[in-house]
Structures are given as C-alpha cells and as structure tokens.
Amino acid sequence: MYNFNYHRPATVADAAALFGKASDARYLAGGQSLIAALKMRLAQPSDLIDLSGIAELRAIKTDSTNLTIGALATHNAVATSKDVLRTIPALAKLADGIGDRQIRNAGTIGGAVANNDPAACYPAAALALGASIQTNKRTLAAADFFTGLYETALAPGELVTSVSFPIPQAAAYQKFQQPASRFALVGVFVARTAQGVRCAVTGAGSGVFRSSVIEQALGARFDASALENVNISAADLNSDIHASAAYRAHLIKVLAQRAVAAIA
Asked: CA distances (Å), 208 to each of 3, 18, 131, 173, in order?
C-alpha cells in the first residue's frame, strides 16, 4: 500500500471540498473494492476521503411512490430495513444475498453503484426499477448512470448521496452466484411497474442491461411459460472459466422464469 493523506469529513460539502483540493483523491465508502486495490498497489491516491462520518448518507426513507436509500446504507441495513421489506422486498432479498456477512456489514449501496462491477447486483435492481441516482450535483436516471465496464456518468469529484427506487407493483431477483465471490454469474431482476414489465440482467455481459425480448414476452403474458420459446442471444455475452456465453444465455431465461414464478 502506498502512502496517502487520510480525511474523515462530517458533511458532503466538506468531502467535496477536500476532493477539490487534492491532486488525486478517492472517496472511501465501505471499502470492499478500494481497500483491496490499495493493498495490491493497483491504486495510488494522494488522498483518501472516508465518508463514514457523514451520518446523513445512511438514511432509508419512503413515501407513497419511492424508496430512497442513502449511499452509506450497508447491504445488511438494506436487507433488514422495515421500509425496504415493506415496499420492495425483492431489494431486501437482493441485498441479503451479496457476499458474506462481513461484506454485507461493511459494503454500501453507494459504493456498489459507483463502482459498477459488471457482476454486481444493485445495478440490476436500479435499471429494472427505473431508479434515480442522486449525487451532490445532480440527479441521474439509472439508464444514463451506468455507462460501461466499471464506468458511470459520475464526473471527477462527484459523489453519490442516495438512490431512489420507484415502488413497483411487484418484483423479484434471482441470482446464479459464483461460489467463491458470490458475485452474480448471472442475475435477473424482473419488475412489474406502472410503465409495464422491466427486466435487467447483471453478470452476463460487460455491464448491466435490459432484456427487451423478455420484457416483450412478459408484457404480452406475465407467466413463466411465456418465456419458453424466447431466444436469448449469446453474441455479446461473457465467456470465461466460470461459464460460456451460451450457458449464460441459458441462465438468463431460466432465472427470468424463476423470478416471474416468485412474483406469481
């Protein structure tokens, strides 16, 4: 690990100011990805800005139409929140399936969204539910926020402060996990919303994406059997030591069927 200056601000404004003064700063949320990168000397920031002292970023609140989760809410906080369990239980289940107990008690939703790992679970929920990502500067739709492999629309120094999920009529998440990391080999989030059926896939490609063929089939008839003849192309899917592109394509359909069955 290289030397760096450590800061622990008490407000979002102070964090942003510290970032602006540093030559090459990084924000630290739960640290589940960044600390590992620092230990392996894959990252060399001049300053590390620890966000854990900003209490306002931990809030979870809801109204009649939206569930808003502060960026520093841990996976365990999301999984056990009464507001989450009441409004979007599928999101609580998703959070409860991330990593192991240590990761769930340290990792945060804001860090996961900002890191945008191609096999992360939260991006699938954000895209399927049509979430909005609030930063210290603006509000971004999930469809515009996730831009590529570990890439987002965040500008240098811009900080995720919360994620707001429209409350769906019903939703479910199904994941086929990689046994060691528990990341999604493939994860599928299906939601019935006022705007229709939405389906987002993680783990299968270079980033999270929506499946239009699944959405069309379920829009016509919301039943697992409606997906029997759906063909998922493997053309742009990942193929690695864990699974071939064809196997991932097969998993997308199977997991979508299981998600629909869970909703039903």
From this structure: 34, 32, 14, 14
Residue 113: what are its φ and ψ, rounded to 5°? -70, -45
What whole-number distance in Å separates Cα of residue 103 and Cα of residue 9?
23
What would the pLDDT profile of 236-247 be if each residue is shown by its tens digit? 999 999 999 999
Q: Identify the CA nearest to 123 among candidates 150, 102, 96, 159.
A: 150
CB atoms inside a 10 Å sphere around CB 169: 10
| Cβ–Cβ under 8 Å, residues 167 and 195 | no
Candidates 3.30.300.180, 3.40.50.11750, 3.30.43.10, 3.40.50.2300; CATH matching 5-50 = 3.30.43.10
CATH of 55-263, one of 3.10.520.10, 3.30.465.10, 3.40.50.300, 3.20.20.70: 3.30.465.10
Taking the CA atoms of the chain, what radius of gyration do you get in angstroms?
18
Query: Which pair of tokens denotes residue 77?
Result: 């906080």
Strand order in the sheet with 196-202: 170-177, 184-193, 196-202, 209-210
pLDDT of 1 > 90? The answer is no
Q: Which residues contact 204 (CB under 8 A, 6 or more apart)?
A: 186, 237, 238, 248, 249, 251, 252
